Amino acid sequence: MRVRETGIQGVRLVETAPVRDARGAFARLFCENELSEIIKGRHIVQINQSWTRIPGTVRGLHYQRPPYAEMKLIRCLKGRAWDVAVDLRKGSRTLLQYFTHVLEPDSLIMVAIPEGFAHGFQVLESDTELLYLHTTPFVPDSAGIIRFDDPKVDIAWPLPVVEVSDRDKGAPLLDAVFEGFEI
């Protein structure tokens, strides 16, 4: 596994090197030892999978507030998704800026998103499946949402947005005094 830095401090891309032969391929999807420089003593405590049928669908932008803020590692198992991480860290030089990466199974790239970021994605192909590894269990009272069309973040989604959950559509816009979260 090879870890690459991105333009936003803390968000990284993890490249997996598969072993290929005439039968197909084998790839290690996660190795705590090889990823120790980004895991830093955290442990994966929850693994989730999403299935999304319709291209243009947006899921997110979700996060958990401290003390239940979580690191996420996201990998595409099927289809293609435009993945987004929005910086919510108080005092960060990239507060409310976002990083994007197209996730697809053939690239074997995983996005590592640290605590203090909201995460979401837009599906680019039918029947896209993503796998999420979390360092903190889901705590409903700590869950937060940034609306996908919040003008303070101003995400330029690659496709017209066709589907969004009622929960995500109903999220309030960030107020004028939002300064981020202490992490």
Task: Describe the model.
By secondary structure, this protein is mainly beta. The chain has one domain (2-16, 29-169): Jelly Rolls (Sandwich), CATH 2.60.120.10. 4% of the residues lie in helices and 38% in strands. The chain has helices at residues 36-39, 166-169, and strands at residues 2-5, 12-15, 19-21, 24-26, 46-52, 58-64, 72-78, 81-87, 98-103, 109-113, 117-123, 128-134, 143-145. The longest helix has 4 residues, at 36-39. The mean pLDDT is 95.
Question: What does the secondary structure layout of this molecule look like, with pairings?
Answer:
Blueprint: E1 2-5, E2 12-15, E3 19-21, E4 24-26, H1 36-39, E5 46-52, E6 58-64, E7 72-78, E8 81-87, E9 98-103, E10 109-113, E11 117-123, E12 128-134, E13 143-145, H2 166-169
Antiparallel strand pairs: 1-2, 2-10, 3-4, 5-12, 6-11, 6-13, 7-10, 7-12, 8-9, 8-11
Quick overview:
The protein is mainly beta. It has helices at residues 36-39, 166-169; strands at 2-5, 12-15, 19-21, 24-26, 46-52, 58-64, 72-78, 81-87, 98-103, 109-113, 117-123, 128-134, 143-145.
Biggest sheet strand line-up: 1-2-10-7-12-5
From the N-terminal CA to the C-terminal CA, the straight-line distance is 27 Å
Count of the domains: 1
Q: Which descriptor suits the 3D outline?
A: globular
Low-confidence stretches: none
Helical content, roughly?
A: under 10%
The CATH topology turns out to be: Jelly Rolls
- Strand element count: 13
CATH superfamily descriptor: Jelly Rolls
How many H/I helical runs?
Answer: 2
User: From the coordinates shown, what is the CATH architecture?
Assistant: Sandwich
Main beta-sheet annotation:
6 strands, antiparallel
